[in-house]
Write a structure and sequence with these properties.
8 helices, about 30% helix, globular
């Protein structure tokens, strides 16, 4: 862990299906550089994505370490799935190494919901994070510690649809906000029963589309709050895998 005598600056990158967001933070999560974003390239190959990140961050102030959230299943910095970027393009790509090779600093790479959760959780009890964006993401925490990632988005919620499809951005535009909200409420009710979490945070670009009343232990959070999880990933006693 860093100490007050060894302050670090962190490049925090949130890779999404539609945009890549980034900022530079101090170890307390305070912004040193204004939060900026760039459109996710299409096709979103590793090469194209790295070029977009370099373009986005070329005028950023100096930093010591990199934290990146990626929309898929990541283990020890290697991508196994990327449903909204192209799994065939990304499978078995060591994104941690790519970032270090291209930007020159050590990196931690986790699922995007995992990193966002690190930025918003209270740190007590069993907490869950859901992201509603291009796809559907989840993260689980116990007493502030990131638990092993589960790709709940790939579970079937109907005979033909996973959570990722059922509540993704494409579904929102196809069926409209009214029906999408009914789906969202059904999923939240189910998750409350299954996980019995102490607190739930809902992030992602479509979280603001929710129009039904939320329980007292549920809170909508912004992407700007979530990107502050970058420094916390490095400050865990045990780094995520």
């Amino acid at each position: 862990m860093q100490t007050p005598s060894d302050p670090k600056k962190f490049l925090s990158i949130d890779i999404g299906g539609s945009h890549i967001k980034a900022t530079v933070l101090d170890q307390e999560g305070k912004q040193i550089k204004e939060y900026e974003k760039i459109q996710t390239p299409s096709p979103a190959s590793p090469e194209n994505l790295m070029q977009a990140i370099k373009t986005l961050t070329k005028d950023f102030p100096a930093y010591d370490l990199i934290s990146a959230g990626f929309p898929g299943y990541v283990k020890d910095g290697t991508v196994f799935t990327a449903p909204n970027l192209g799994t065939d393009l990304w499978r078995n790509t060591n994104l941690k190494k790519l970032l270090k090779d291209n930007l020159g600093k050590d990196a931690i790479v986790v699922n995007d919901a995992d990193m966002q959760g690190m930025g918003v959780i209270g740190g007590k009890g069993f907490e869950m994070v859901i992201t509603l964006g291009t796809g559907f993401g989840t993260a689980l925490f116990f007493n502030g510690k990131l638990l092993p990632h589960l790709e709940l988005a790939h579970l079937q919620v109907t005979k033909s649809k996973t959570y990722d499809v059922y509540l993704g951005d494409k579904a929102l535009h196809e069926i409209g906000a009214g029906r999408w909200n009914k789906r969202a409420k059904k999923v939240l009710d189910n998750f409350n029963t299954v996980f019995n979490y102490d607190f739930l945070y809902i992030g992602g670009g479509n979280a603001s589309k929710i129009d039904f009343k939320l329980e007292g232990n549920v809170k909508i959070v912004s992407n700007r709050e979530g990107i502050k999880g970058g420094p916390r990933l490095w400050q865990q006693d045990e780094k995520p895998v």
